[in-house]
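Whether sequence alone determines local backbone shape is best considered at the level of individual chains. When preparing material for the folding task, we compiled for one chain both its residues and its backbone structure tokens. The sequence in question and its structure tokens are set out directly beneath this paragraph.
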Amino acid sequence: MTVRIHPTALIEEDVQIGPGTSVWDNVHIRRAARIGEQCIIGEKTYIAYDVRIGHRVKINAFVYICAAVTIEDGVMISAGTIFTNDRFPRATTPDLKQLRSSDPDAHTLSTLVREGATIGAGCVIGCGLTIGRFAMVGMGSLVTKSVPDFHLAIGHPASSIGCVCRCGQIFTRFPHQGLLSISEVACAACGLVYSVLDGQVSELAPPA
């Protein structure tokens, strides 16, 4: 499988792109980024230096992925999503006489998007947090804290309202008063079975 790179894309030095990956128009990938196999990088997306992206990742148009972000296999990041890596950013030193470097420093916090997760269109993702395995973040959400595995999180700030299956369908919703526990629950769409203990999801028979 070959790598497809649109002629308007800007690929800096020491970038690695796996076979079968497509990079569309006006994408900018900074130095030393690593992108896996069979990915799609949508038009006008920016990927900062040293970012790590796994295999079969789908990144839609106009996505901003800053330094210190790691994206595992099978993740979907929808159009217009913005990642951040500094909770208290400043343009200059305190005396306003010197620009702060854009290179990672003590203020830079990492973000991890675990395998199979989906981030909806127009989300803003805070830093120093993890989006869990097969979690789903609803469109337009502001994520300020980690999202557990298989949770569906929405809102400003985002909070968990239920659990989603590997197939993407909701298999249970949380009550208004908080998390719940269910010994066994099957996804109505595909039949995969889960247990939920105080909101923590376990797969009872994960796919081989």
Remarks:
- The chain has no helices and 26 strands.
- Residues 4 and 22 are 5 Å apart (CA to CA).
- Residues 4-177 form a domain with the UDP N-Acetylglucosamine Acyltransferase; domain 1 fold (CATH 2.160.10.10).
- The mean pLDDT is 95.
